[in-house]
Specification:
- The chain contains 17 helices and 18 strands.
- It is an alpha+beta fold.
- The chain has a nine-stranded antiparallel beta sheet, with helices on one face.
- Strand 8 and strand 9 form a beta hairpin.
Length: 484
Amino acid sequence: MPLRREDIGAKNTSRVLAGVLAFSLSMVSLSSLAQESQPACKTILGRVVSIQGTVEVRHAGTRDWIRAIRLNTPICNGDLVRTGVRSRAGVILAPETLIRVDQGTVLSVRAIQQETEAELHLEDRVPSDVLSNACGASYFITRFPRKFKVKTPYLSAAVEGTEFQIALACDRAELSVFEGRVLAETLVSQASRITLGTGQVTSAGTGEAPSPIQVLLRPTDAVQWALFYPPISEVSPDQIPSDCWGLASFERAVCLTTRSEELLRVGRAEEAQTQIKLLFELVPLSPDAHALSSVISLVKNDKDKALKLALRAVELSDQSSRAWLALSYAQQAHFELEKALASTQRAAALSPDSALVQARVAEILMSLGDAKAAEDAARKAIEINPRESRAHTVLGFVRLAQIDTKQAKAEFNQAIELDSTDPLPRLGNGLAIVREGKLEEGREQLEIAVALDPTNSLIRSYVGKAYYEENSKERDQLAATQFR
C-alpha cells in the first residue's frame, strides 16, 4: 500500500501513537530552532540539540570554554565542542548531518568550500576513567555524499551518505561503518586508502596504514554509549556516591544499584555492568541487579532474556517497583500491553509518590488507546514532579491524538527541555510538525530521534516513511535503507 502523509501523523494519529508507544523499547530544522543570543560569527554551522552532563563550546579565535546550558547553543565555523566525564551531546549541522558526541571528546567543525569537516582532537581532552573510547568517540549520520569528512590524528574518513562511528583509544582510532560506504585513509601513503561498507571495521595508529577490514559482529555493542536506556527509578545526580567501598553490605548494595542506573542514564552500559557484577557478588539474589540486567538486555534487543531476567526480579521481590517497571518494559517489547499495564500499576501501588512510575502508567494507558486515563495519570505525575519529562511526552501524544498540534508541540518541547536525551518527545514533535504539513522540519526532528537512539527500529520506520513522502529517487533509496 502506498504511504501517505496521513500515515505519518494526520488522520490516524491515535493508531500511530499506539504503535509508537507499543513498539518502542522505552519510551530540526535549523531554521525552526529557538533563537537565542549568538556569538559574533559570520557562519553558524549548526546547534547543540542534546545536552547531558557537562558540554562546553570554545568559539573560534578564543581560549575560553563556555558551558552549553541551553539547547540550540549555536556552533560556528571553527568552533570546538567538548564533553566531560559521563556526559553526552547531540549536534545538528547543515546540511542534514547529525553527530552524537561521547564523553571525554573534543570535536571541532568547520566549513571548507563546499565540504563540512569534523575533527576529533587529542589535545585539551577531558581525562576520564572510561573502559573504552578513552579519548572520546562520535557517531555520525550524514545523508549528503562527498560533502562531509572526519579527521583524527590517525586516520580520516570521507563519507558517501552513511552512518558510522569513530572512537579514539588515544594511541589509535577505530572506524566502524553501520550503513553506507566510507573511504578511510591515513598519511602513510596513497596505498593506505580502503573503502569500508556496512558492518565493517578498521583501525590505525601513528604511522600505520588502516588495518585489514573486519566484520562488525555486534553493532549494538560498538555504539552502546549512544543508546537510550529506559529508567526504572528516579535517580538524582546529587544522590550518586563517588565510592561504594567501605560501606556496610546493605548500604553498599543500595550504592551499587544507584550507580548502575545512573551510569545507564548516560549510556555507560559497560561500566554499569561492572557495578551490577559487584552487586551480584554481594547479593546473588538481588532483584535490582536482575532488573537492571533486564533493561540492558532489552536495549540490546535480546527480548527473551530481558523478560526472563525481569520475571526473576519480580519473583525475588514482589515489593520492588524497579522490578515491576523492568518487567513492564519487557512485556511491552513482547506486545503484552495488558500485562505491562498491570506491572506498572503494581509499581505505582508500591511507589505512589513516584512521578516516573505514574508517567509510565500513563504511557501504557496511551498505548492501549485510553487517552483520558493516560491524561489523568500524566497530570498526576506532573503534580508529583513538574519536571518529569515523560509525563509531558504522554500529554503531547494525548493532544496529538486530539489533533491539537499546537499544544502537542508545546508539551513535546517542554519534555525535550527537561530531558534532551529521550528520543520519544522528538518522535512526537516530528509527527506533530508533519501533521501541520511541514514535512522537512518534521523529518529532521525524526532524524534527531534516530541519533538519540540509533538502534530503535520504530523510529527508523518513521524516518523511512518521511523520506518516502519526500518523493525523490534519492529519498526513496534512503527510505528503503531505513526499512531494512
